[in-house]
Amino acid sequence: MDISGDGRFSIRLEWCGHETPRWVARFCERWIGQRETEAAALDLATRWNTERMGF
User: Fold this and answer.
1) Based on the structure, what is the number of domains in the chain?
2) Most exposed among 4, 6, 31, 48, judged by the fewest C-beta atoms under 10 Å?
3) What are the angstrom distances between the C-alpha of 11 and each of 23, 42, 54, 55?
4) Do 55 and 46 form a contact (C-beta atoms < 8 A)?
5) pTM score
6) Structural domain harbouring 41
7) Which residues lie below 8 Å from residue 6, measured CB to CB, with a gap of 6+?
8) Within-domain flag for 4
9) Per-position pLDDT tens, the chain of length 55
10) Cα angle 43-47-51, degrees, rounded to a multiple of 5
11) Is residue 10 within a helix (H) or strand (E), and if so which, with residue range?
């Protein structure tokens, strides 16, 4: 399920308790999770959305 173009999702670098900023995925400003790479955060958000939609 493609989340591009869905403004409810954001993937941004944030400080979240690690030595370096991490890519944080959010939905409607709510934390989904963090990953070391932008691609991994996008994958996390896409998988989370697929589960949220019941697929």
Assistant:
1) 1
2) 4
3) 6, 7, 22, 22
4) no
5) 0.90
6) 9-52
7) none
8) no
9) 678 889 999 999 999 999 999 999 999 999 999 999 999 999 999 999 999 999 8
10) 170
11) strand 9-14
7: CB partners within 8 A, 6+ apart: none
Instruction: Write out the H or E segment, with its range, that includes residue 33.
Output: strand 30-35
In this structure, is residue 2 part of a structural domain?
no
Query: Which two tokens mark 19?
Result: 């030595």
Q: Is residue 17 in some structural domain?
A: yes
| Residue 3: inside a domain | no
- For 16-53, b where at least 16 C-beta lie within 10 A, e where not — what string? eeeeeebbbbbbeeeebbbbeeeebbbebbbebbeeee
Q: How many CA atoms lie within 13 A of 2 on its CB side?
A: 2
